[in-house]
Amino acid sequence: MRSCRRSVQIIFCLFCLLCIVPASSVCGSTASADGPSSGPGGAGPSGPPDGLSPEELRELERITTLGYVAGGDSAPEDGGVTVREDGAYEGYTMIVSGDYPGAFLIGMDGEVLHSWHEDGPDYWVRAYAYPDGGVLAISAYPWRLVKLGADSELEWTYGEEFFRAHHDFQVQRDGRIYVLMRRPNNPRWLGVGGISEDMVCIIEPGAAAVREIGCVSLAEAFRDSDFAYLLSAFEVGADDPFHANSVEVLDGSVPHPAFSAGNILVSIRNMDCLAVLDPRARSVVWTSCGRWQRQHEARVTPEGRIMLFDNRKFDGQSRVVEFDVVGGQMTWSYTHEDFYSQGAGAQQLLPNGNVLVTESQKGRVFEITRDGRLVWEYLNPRRVDDGATIARIPRSYRAAPNFFEPSFLQRLGQ
Description:
Blueprint: H1 6-15, E1 30-31, H2 54-63, E2 71-74, E3 80-84, E4 92-95, E5 102-106, E6 112-117, E7 123-129, E8 135-140, E9 144-148, E10 154-158, E11 164-171, E12 177-185, E13 195-205, E14 210-217, H3 218-223, E15 244-249, E16 264-268, E17 273-278, E18 283-289, E19 296-300, E20 306-310, E21 319-324, E22 329-335, E23 346-349, E24 355-359, E25 364-368, E26 374-379, E27 383-384, E28 389-391, E29 396-399, H4 406-412
Antiparallel strand pairs: 1-14, 2-28, 3-26, 4-5, 4-29, 5-6, 7-8, 8-9, 9-10, 11-12, 12-13, 13-14, 15-16, 16-17, 17-18, 19-20, 20-21, 21-22, 23-24, 24-25, 25-26, 27-28
């Protein structure tokens, strides 16, 4: 699978001079449903990394699993949809639950219209449905990107033991996928010892295999930028210095030169930073740090602003904020005295202007208007720890009523 004819290699590698990784690290790298995928050469090794002792490797394997637990807060009495008011955006809501290796598609009344299930993993952390009913997801234990059909039949996987998918991905109109990957590594130039190294990888799924186009290491992108000074704050033993948790390919709608179409917006939790990568230069070209704490889900709005889930881990109260990149000001925020998720969390700006919020730790998804009025609420009916705690909801999102193909809607009885 990793071999290719010499002539094809030469032509393809000349083309790869324009890619985001050296051509030698791209050629011949594929993944399929027949077995584990292989990483793109130097960016994603197919075996244990060099330069790490067995003790360091075990520790890095341990820290990559921290923060992912099935249960959240104490279980409430209610479950399902508890609020449904006029003004809510009608659609289909995709839910992943911290105790289930799959996803649920629910209607506005909370009825499960369809579900997907994968044998093997403990649970899923994010899922995206295709119009035909197929689903793309990040699974946990093992950590990988997985594509299933509408009937949960496995089509392909991407990721392996020392090269793991995590947190987020984004599907482009041309079918390419940008996904956050992680590997244990010991970049000697960083001087902090072994780390869990985050990177953004681009893949192109085919009929029976996945072609890896390339990867950008966040550590190297910071090193080779005007923001390298931010790395000096890392201390020896900082084994998870980045912890990237969202990725978005920019479309040029933000009126700022760093936000050019094709650049990549990344949320980096453990630095309290947002960063924009130029994948062609393999360099960070913009950052904003310290305005938020342990944030998640940085997304560009149609107005060219950034909306994100600000966990405020050290304040005990979360918020959702909208940020004007050009003016440098917060343009909108939502919080509530009982609104808090120490880990995870997400938001989605809906077409009618409302905001769908995932309060992960409480297993709660709710929709608010811009003036903060609650118009829809869903509490995960699933329980863990012998019923004592509610199952977390790592992510959710709402699909428009006309998103799915008619043939799949018929299966849903819609």
